[in-house]
Specification:
Length: 273
């Protein structure tokens, strides 16, 4: 059976969708099963001179190699070539040989189909078990709709194993509640304005960042209205220490974030007053 025939059979089996299609394929192939005389294989071994070292047993390569032994023949100077020949029983015709080759292809396809059928049945069984587990744990189905890394991992584990531990279920529900709470808080949070505005608020934290232009001193600024701004520390107080907690009035250009309307990026900050 050639590599091309194997590839064609694989593609044919992969195109089958669902357990009924696999079962129908296996049944159709078993109906075409034939009995053919099997050939015997003769093995002929020949000892020849090593083509790498020309029979010397020494490695003819760079001088820095520590081992001078030929890697092909392991220093023996000779290697063994094995030739296998298929021998058919007497009276076997060319049509019998062709039918035997087609039978090999058929059996290969049946093996692949049976393997795929077994995997599909196991997948369906795990899926049914997972569905029953989700139904037995209220809120888990809603939690699995969230797009979170841990939620995705737990969902994959449930698909593979069919169940989760009590702590894993509690973790999924907790993450879902936290996501819902953040969404509610974000929806109710005050929206940051856009453009050049004057705001009064408190410096929450500061951080030194490096960019293409060198180092810059940034701060998280929370306005009295409730929205937050990520902006450079004004040059007038950039050299001072202990800025966290200080109340300032800034004139700054704001651009709200596309992901969170209650968060804005500021530029050109100037202290007012």
């Amino acid at each position: 059976m050639s590599t091309q025939e194997q590839t064609q059979v694989k593609l044919q089996v992969q195109a089958l969708e669902g357990i009924p299609a696999l079962e129908a394929y296996i049944a159709a192939q078993d109906a075409n099963k034939i009995r053919m005389p099997k050939p015997t294989t003769t093995v002929e071994k020949r000892v020849i001179r090593c083509p790498k070292c020309k029979g010397t047993g020494d490695y003819d390569g760079p001088t820095w190699e520590m081992s001078r032994e030929c890697w092909t023949c392991r220093g023996e100077g000779t290697i063994t070539r094995t030739k296998r020949t298929r021998v058919w029983p007497e009276g076997t015709s060319e049509q019998d040989v062709a039918r035997y080759e087609s039978e090999l292809v058929r059996r290969y396809g049946v093996r692949l189909a049976k393997k795929a059928l077994k995997e599909a049945q196991a997948h369906n069984a795990r899926g049914a078990k997972a569905d029953a587990f989700i139904a037995a744990n209220p809120g888990l189905a809603q939690a699995f709709r969230e797009d979170h890394a841990i939620i995705r991992d737990l969902r994959d584990q449930l698909t593979r194993k069919g169940s989760l531990s009590e702590k894993q279920v509690a973790l999924a529900l907790k993450i879902a509640r936290e996501i819902e709470a953040r969404e509610v808080a974000r929806a109710n949070a005050p929206k940051a304005p856009r453009g050049r505005v004057t705001v009064t608020g408190e410096i929450v934290s500061t951080k030194e960042q490096y960019n293409a232009y060198g180092y810059s001193f940034k701060m998280l600024f929370k306005a009295q209205e409730g929205f937050k701004v990520w902006v450079s520390v004004p040059s007038a107080i950039a050299c001072e220490k202990g800025l966290e907690g200080r109340t300032l009035t800034l004139k700054v250009t704001l651009k709200p974030s596309n992901d969170d309307p209650s968060f804005a990026f500021g530029t050109r900050p100037t202290i007012v007053g």
